[in-house]
Amino acid sequence: MIEDIESVLGILDDIEDWYAPKAPAEDFTPSKQALVCIGEYAIKTYLKKLPDKANRPFSIFVEKSGIDVGKWIPQGLGPHLVLGFENSQVNTHFWYSVLPYFSKNDPLATMDGKPKVSIMLASVWDGVSSASLPTLISKFQASQVNSLATAILPSKAQTNDAHFNSLASIKNCAAIQGSTVLLLERDMLESYAGVDRKGALMKGSSVANYLVHLMLDKEAFVSELSELSRTFNVNTYTVLLSTGASYSIYGSVENMLDAALLNPLLTFELKSSSVLYVLVRMPSWLKEKLTRGNIELATANWFKEKAELKSLNVTEPIYVDEQNDRVDLTLFIGGFDTKKMLTGLEQKVRALKSEAMKKGFIKGDDWQVILQGEGEKKAVEAKAQEPAGEAQNPEEALEAGKRLELERVLCMLENLEEQSEL
Known about the structure:
Elements: H1 2-19, E1 33-38, H2 40-47, E2 58-62, H3 66-72, E3 80-83, H4 95-102, E4 117-123, H5 127-142, E5 146-153, H6 160-174, E6 181-185, H7 186-190, E7 193-195, E8 201-203, H8 206-217, H9 221-232, E9 236-246, H10 247-250, H11 253-261, E10 275-283, H12 292-303, E11 311-314, E12 318-320, E13 326-334, H13 339-348, H14 350-358, H15 364-372, H16 374-385, H17 394-421
Parallel strand pairs: 1-2, 1-4, 2-3, 4-5, 5-6, 6-9, 10-11, 10-12
Antiparallel strand pairs: 7-8, 9-13, 10-13
């Protein structure tokens, strides 16, 4: 019986490979860091201004059309990988159509070696991006690569399908044990106004590009924030930042913090926050005036009346060889209450969810898992700690496993047929 099932599964695996999205065949050797940009908005945001050639990370671009991405990439970008879905025969509009297929395609398999850490930037309102982000978090975890996922949420003006995709994406990300997710809002990115290290005006999504450069400049950043997340069981963050702040004009860290509070990149409740990671970039000549200890004490005093923090971590600042006095002060704030935001999103997409369930694209149980997020993760952990039941005969266990795999693949093929009829 086992041999018969294996024979059928071998044929079905060939069919499944046919439908799976394909990555380019080139072998690239990644640097210590990998940068993954998912979705047109995220890709174009990063490409606005690239890091110096010597410091560019290995880049992975994920989009519905890999051909379009090829047109956006400038000459001389350096080692990169493009993953497109034009030949996948997958309906890419909603997350639930992409997730079963993309989750079986491992982009890391085409790379010679693996990065030390990964920073991901995703605009999670389309089907490809919303499904790809949690999938890649899991893929990097399986390869023991620390990662930070930055999810840009859709504008309030965007249609409900965009919010449906984004809700599923951020909850799927949050349900992954040990994930670290940074949430930003598109509306707030677009309305941002500040200055860069040269004192030039910086507006709109350029601040997201600036933030990515800042994270790349601190080699230990992702590893340190990941450790903080695991220690306090916190995986959702946002950011407050004061960019290009002249120390002679602002005069103190507290004034810079006040300025950062005026330009949030997510609507959230600061007082419910529990952990804080502070990253500062400044000229090396300011090292004696603006010590790490001074920054920590000033930040602790500033937060005293604003939130009851369990942990405040000020990492070693990034020092640059510049003659100006401009400071980039960035607060990665985690542990805040997301219930209000997520409840509002669920109400907004209720009709789309019901329609998808009615057509059989998602099941009620699957949707409940997405909405439970953290609760589901804890339930899985509790289940894992339960005493094991009576051991199965090895042959019976193998046959049962093969049957489950057969049912899963047959279900996949039924979904393909349904989508081809639409």
